[in-house]
Amino acid sequence: MNLLLSAQGQDAQAWLQCLQARLPDANIRLWQPDISEYFQADYALVWKPPSALFDQQTQLKGIINLGAGVDALLQLPNLPEDVPLLKLRDAGMARWMNDYIRYGVLHFTRDFDRYRQQQPKAQWQPYDIEPASAWPVAILGAGALGQQAASELAAQGFPVRCWSRTRKQIDGVESYSGEAGLEACLNGARILINLLPHTPATRSLINSKTLSWLGKGAALISCGRGEILDADAVLAALDEGQLRGALLDVFETEPLPADSPLWQHPGAIITPHIAAPTPVEEAATQIQTYIEQLEAGQVPQTVDPALGY
Questions:
Q1: CA 234 from chain center: how many Å?
Q2: For the chain, does the N or the C end have fewer beta carbons within 10 angstroms?
Q3: Are the beta carbons of 1 and 295 closer than 8 angstroms?
C-alpha cells in the first residue's frame, strides 16, 4: 500500500514516524513535484496540498485531511470528486480546544480583563463574582469539538445554547438551527463561542447584526474558522461596548497582518491559531483506522463538499 504525505507548515518527519509505526507495511513518501514519475499513491494524507498533487496522483482510493478544517482543500479546482474525502474528527484536539475555551470563559467571568486594565492605573477595585448560572453561553458549531465544549460548560453550571445546521441532542444544552434559531440562540448571551467551519453559509456570520443580539457587554471567543468573523463589525462592537472583549485565535488572513487594528485594540487578545493543535500520535491512530476501514470496503464518515465539512 502506497501513502503520499503532503503536510505544508507541519512537522512532516513527526507524521512519517507515527504513521510508519502504525502502518509498518505501508510505503510512505513525501510529496515532491516529480513524484508521479515513479510513485502512485493509494491514499493521500494532506494539509493544504499543492494543486499539482491531484493532477499527478490518478489512482487514489482516499484523501485524508490532516486537520479538522477542509476549506483550503475544497477550494482546489482539481480535487477529485469520485475519491472519498475524510478529515480528522477530534483526534485528541478536543482537550486542547476545551482548555482554550475554559481559559477564555474564566478570563471574562472572573473579570481578569478588567483587572488587567486597572493595573497600569494602580487601581484596586475588586468585582463581585457572579455564578456560572448568570452567564448564558452561545456556541456556534456543534460538531465533535462543539459538542464536547457544550457538554463541559453545561456540567460547570453555565446555561449553554448551541446552534448548527441541524439541531443536536446534547444533555443539558439547548439546541437551535436555522436563521430564526440563530437569533434565539444568541439573544441575550453573555459569552459567544465560535466553533463553526468555513462554508458559504457561515462566512461573516458573526457581523454587526448578529453581535447586536448578544447581551450588552458580551465576550467573544473565536477558535473555529476566521472567515466566520466580520473583523470590522467586531472592532465596532468593541469600540461601542457591545463586546467587552474578544479572545481571537483564528483569522481570515493568517498570520494576522501587522497593520490589523485588532493587534492594538485594548479589548482584543490575539493568539496565533494555537487553540487546538493536532496531536500527531492520536491523529495517526485515527488515520490508521480510516485506512483499515477503507481497505475492508467500509466507508467512514466522509466530508460533504456541498456542506463544507
A1: 18
A2: N
A3: yes
